[in-house]
C-alpha cells in the first residue's frame, strides 16, 4: 500500500491539497517518490505555488536537492516560476540545514 499512498501524494501535491498531503504522509507515503518526469511532491507544490504544502513537505524531510529529468531542482524551479515565497521558504530550510551541519562539524 505504500506505493499507492505515494502516487496519491504526488496527485495531492499537484492539486495543492494540503490536508490530503498531511493525511497521506501520516499513512507512510514516500515523500520523495518521483513521477514519470522525475518530479517529487515538493516540486509539484512549487509548481502550484502552494507555500503551505511546500513548508509541510520540507518540515517532514522532503529532499530539496533532487533533480528532475529536465535538470531542474526545486530552487531553480521556484526561481524560474518567479514564486518568491517558495524561493524564500526553500532558502529558509537550506540555511537551517547549513547552520545545523556547521554546528555539528559535519
Quick structural gist:
The chain is mainly alpha-helical. Helices cover 63% and strands 0% of the residues. α1 runs parallel beside α3 (41-47) and α5 (74-81) runs antiparallel to α6 (84-103).
Give an overview of the whole structure.
Helix 5 runs antiparallel to helix 6. Residues 1-5 have low confidence and may be disordered. The protein contains 6 helices and no strands. By secondary structure, it is mainly alpha-helical.
On the 0-100 scale, what is the average pLDDT? Answer: 89
- If you compute it from the alpha carbons, what radius of gyration comes out, rounded to the nearest whole angstrom? 13 Å
What letter string, H or E per element, gives the SSE order?
HHHHHH
Q: Specify the number of helices.
A: 6
> What general outline do the C-alpha atoms trace?
globular
* DSSP strand tally: 0
Distance between the termini: 36 Å
Q: Which structural class do the helices and strands define?
A: mainly alpha
What does the main sheet amount to? none
Poorly predicted parts: 1-5
* Proportion of helical residues: 55-70%
Please indicate the percent range of residues in DSSP E strands (runs of 2 or more): under 5%
Amino acid at each position: 500500500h505504500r506505493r499507492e499512498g505515494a502516487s496519491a501524494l504526488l496527485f495531492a501535491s499537484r492539486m495543492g491539497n494540503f490536508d490530503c498531503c498531511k493525511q497521506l504522509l501520516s499513512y507512510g507515503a514516500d515523500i520523495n517518490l518521483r513521477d514519470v518526469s522525475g518530479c517529487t511532491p515538493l516540486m509539484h507544490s512549487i509548481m502550484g505555488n502552494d507555500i503551505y504544502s511546500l513548508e509541510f513537505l520540507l518540515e517532514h524531510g522532503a529532499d530539496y536537492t533532487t533533480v528532475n529529468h529536465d535538470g531542474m531542482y526545486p530552487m531553480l524551479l521556484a526561481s524560474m516560476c518567479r514564486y518568491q515565497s517558495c524561493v524564500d521558504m526553500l532558502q529558509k530550510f537550506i540555511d537551517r540545514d547549513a547552520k545545523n551541519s556547521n554546528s555539528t562539524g559535519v
